[in-house]
Amino acid sequence: MSEYEPKELSKATTIPSSWYLDPAFLDREREKIFRRSWQWIGRAEDVSRPGDYFAASLLDEPIVVARDHDSRLRGLSNVCRHRAALIAEGKGNGKLLQCPYHGWTYGLDGRLRRAPEMEGVEDFEIDDVCLPGVRVEAWGPMVLGSLEASGPSFRETAPEIAFEVERAGFPIEKMKFRERREYVVEANWKIYVDNYLEGYHIPMIHPALYRELDYEKYRVEAFRNHATQYAPLRPSSDEDRTYPKREEDEKALYYWVFPNLMLNFYPGNLQANAVIPLDHERTLTVFEWFALDGEDIEAPSPSAIRCRSRTSRSETRCRRVCARTLTIEDDSRCGGRTECTSSMVCFTSI
Question: Which residues make up the CATH 3.90.380.10 domain(s) of the chain?
């Protein structure tokens, strides 16, 4: 970390190439960054009723998220306390969770309720056995989890986001899942974040998106744990537009939440995007679209989803080029537009 000395944004420079290329650096990131942060793990609609549950992976840790019969959202280890078998798979609804290996059965609060043939075993008390808890939180249509035993909630991590989204009129609590897509990018995860945090490339790489936005008013603001990109939509015209009906005050909001979550709000819908490092030079990118069921705000049409998909594929190609360039460039520092370096506000303070 001593290779890089953070500066104010107007004087920021590129971080060292070793931070992208060294496998050991990713190991440190996983321990110091990812395990201490909130990670997107599922959908709120899958645990909307008492008894609902779904299995998930939180940084390779198997967990189960459940809505108990008091309507409390719980996160639990998905590993049986007996022989470490996975307890739940997929999603469902029920009063109990039963391990398929030996039938140990747990309540949705994690407490062991039944252990066949364990009667009379010395030093074993069924009431002493409980699945370890994991912090989980629902936010709009999403469920997030953290392996940290304590610390700020997801809302407290970036409180400005909820306020701005509500002020802009995005009813996220009413949005439902529409579509999921995944891509593997042949690049370090930070290259993806670098690209997301600047709108400088939009005119060249995303002409369809460029037609939607009032690019001259595009701005980026960096905060402690997130960055905001504000992009007002241009009023309707006769041009080829993804969203044909536009009012003067409609806007798009883009958020990056440290370290790897992107939230893109458009009228009537949300695109959530997570980047998950597979190794130091490969990244899984997950996209999900959420939209309103009602008619009051237009839900994303197939053409809108195709537009987002084209955007994603274009950026994927650019990131591959950046990744190849990193392997041949020296470590000379190049500056750039201020928005390109927003992530350094969070990253260099870890």
Answer: 9-16+158-347
* β-pair partners for 250: none
Tens of pLDDT, residue by residue, the chain (350 residues): 667 777 676 777 788 999 999 999 999 999 999 999 999 999 999 999 999 999 999 999 999 999 999 999 999 999 999 999 999 999 999 999 999 999 999 999 999 999 999 998 999 999 999 999 999 999 999 999 999 999 999 999 999 999 999 998 889 999 999 999 999 999 999 999 998 888 888 899 888 888 888 888 888 888 999 999 887 777 766 555 555 554 555 667 889 999 999 999 988 899 999 999 999 999 999 999 999 875 333 344 444 444 454 445 555 555 555 655 565 455 544 454 444 444 544 544 44
Phi, psi of 246 (to 5 degrees): -135, 135
Helices (H), the chain: 18-21, 23-32, 154-157, 159-167, 189-196, 202-205, 207-212, 302-326, 343-347
Q: What is the pTM of this model?
A: 0.82
Three-state DSSP class for 14?
coil
Tell me yes or no: is domain 9-16+158-347 CATH 3.30.460.80: no
Please give the single-letter amino acid code of residue 323.
A
Identify the burial level of 130 via C-beta atoms within 10 angstroms of its C-beta, where 0-12 means exposed, 13-18 middle and 19 or more buried: middle
> What CATH topology corresponds to 39-146?
Rieske Iron-sulfur Protein (2.102.10)
* Structure tokens belonging to residue 345: 């506000």
Number of other CB atoms surrounding residue 14 within 10 Å: 20
Q: How far apart are CA 14 and CA 306, in angstroms?
A: 33
201-236 as b/e: b if 16+ CB within 10 A: ebeeebebbeebbeeeebebebbebbbbbbbbbbee
Q: Are 236 and 248 in contact (CB under 8 A)?
A: no
